[in-house]
Each structure stands twice: as C-alpha cells, then as structure tokens.
Amino acid sequence: MAVFTPVTLDQLGLWLKNYSIGTPLELKGIPSGIENSNFFLTTTHGQYVLTLFEKLTRSELPFYIHLMAHLARHGIPCPAPIADRDNEYLGQLNGKPAAIVSRLAGTSEMSPGVAHCSAIGSILADMHIAGQTYGRRLENPRGPRWWRETAPQVMPFLPPDEQAMLADELRFQVSHRLDKLPRGVVHADLFRDNCLFEITAGVPRVGGIIDFYFAGNDVLLFDVAVTVNDWCSDTAGELDTARTSALLAAYHAERPLNAAEKVHGPPCCAPQLCDSGYRGYSTTTCRDPAKSSMRTIPRAFATFCDYAWLPAMACRGQFELLRPIG
Prior knowledge:
Layout: H1 9-15, E1 24-29, E2 37-43, E3 47-52, H2 62-73, E4 91-93, E5 96-102, H3 114-131, H4 144-154, H5 160-174, E6 183-186, E7 195-200, E8 203-209, E9 216-219, H6 220-231, H7 241-254, H8 259-263, H9 265-269, H10 271-275, E10 283-288, E11 293-298, H11 299-306, E12 311-313, E13 319-321
Helix pairs in contact: 3-6, 3-7, 4-5
C-alpha cells in the first residue's frame, strides 16, 4: 500500500464534491505495500481510506469492490466501499480508477499467538460462508493458468534441482485440482499484514480484514492452506502445532470440513509454491495420499501435510486431533 500517484488536498476536494462524506481535512499516504496508492483520508464526517488502483483496470475492479460490499453487509469486518452521489463505488482520480472505503480499527500482529490464530480461523470460515451468496464470479487470478505463465519466468532463477521440483509440482497439481471439493470465494492473500486486531478485555479480536485484490473463486481448502502456512509457521518455516491446531479448530467449528477435505489437505498446500512465485523454502518429503509414495515439496508445505489433522469436537468443549494424514 505505497503511494505511486500523488494526490493533493485541492485535487481531492474537487473530486469529493460528488460524494457526501464531508470536506477533506487531512490526506496521509500509506507507505507500505506494492500494488496501489493508498491514503488515510480524514473528512468532516469521519475517517476513510482512499485507493488509486495502479494495475487493476476499471473493468477488473467490480468483482473486488462489490465483494467487499457484500461481505460488509454480512457482518464481516472488511472495508465497506463508499458510493458517490451517482451510487457508484468506482471513480477516477488523477487518471487512475479510485475508490473510498471505510477505515477499520486495529493493527497487524506480525508475531501471532494461539489466540490470534484461533480468531483468524474463525473469521476465515465466516468469510467463506458469507461468500457463498456472492453472485459475481472470478476464477482465482493466481490459479493454474497463472502458474503455467509464471513458471517459465521463475525457472531461470532456480538451481536445476529446484527447477525439477517446481516442474514436478506443476504436473502434480494438474492431476490434483480437486475441483469437486467445496468451492467459493477465497481471499487468497490472508497473510498477517492483511488482518487488523483490537484487544478487548485482554483477548485479541479481528477488527478488520483488508486487501481483497487477489480474491477469486477456488477450492476453499486452498484458502485455509494459504492462511495456515503464513499464520502458523515459525522462524524455521515449520508449522507450530499449537497455533495450527487453534486455527483449524476455530475454522472447523464455524464451517466443518467434510471427509473429502480432510483427505485432500496435502495437495491443497503445495499450490502456494506457485502462488508465491517460489519463495525458496527448504524442502523435505511427505507421503502423497493419492499415490501412497513419498514426494519432495517445500518444507513449510510438507509440515502442513504432516499436521493436516482436522479438529474433532469432543466432550466438554475440548478438541482432539484426528490421525495425521499419510
């Protein structure tokens, strides 16, 4: 969320005449991020976030903007787009598509504990449930087509053994798309910096989920794998058992994973290798449940395979771990 296209208060004041959010008082650029120009906007009516889209076109943006509006209407703490006086969410400012959304409370937690992981698991399940009634569709923009297009660009930067591993993983994923698993809208980028927390009575509460601009339609379990891999990994790239258990238990309590999802957890983890543009994780082997053989994958994903148990409700509100997959 850096600033690539500057905006002055005078320019903004003219543009906001088509909105009913008051007169601008302060506009402060948000320095972090890499995709869009973002600003904290304070007006006489309140606090907002102004975004100028640097890469996404006006024709591509309605899926994301209306998704946020849909989720916000269903109680998900995400940015709510603000309509102008023509009832449009999207405008144009300084030659770029632009939108104003509500500003959410809280800060990102880059060293999450068990309670944070439990909270994010619960809100992820709630988002998946709310997304089932969203009418627009967009296939995951970081799905198989993107993998095939991006892999040749990545290959020259990898040593031969890792080139072979990536090529093998792409072949494996082609035969394990698992499209019969539950599908819906996925955030696909729910990393630690895209969640804001508030503390209530000493307990972390999700104050906001942001950055929906990689969202799309895909297998819901893929979104779980993306989230687990980021929120539950330790500094060595291994999954922390307590955090992983807490996240999965909280998710499962809201949207119980079915038998097929429990079986196919491991193949859903490895697409992150492609989605991340290859992050150079150390590698290990894990058992391929479809082939009953061992295969080499990045260690972070392999660890998820090892711990791809799903929490089952037991008596007195406790959870027990199902037998590890593989």
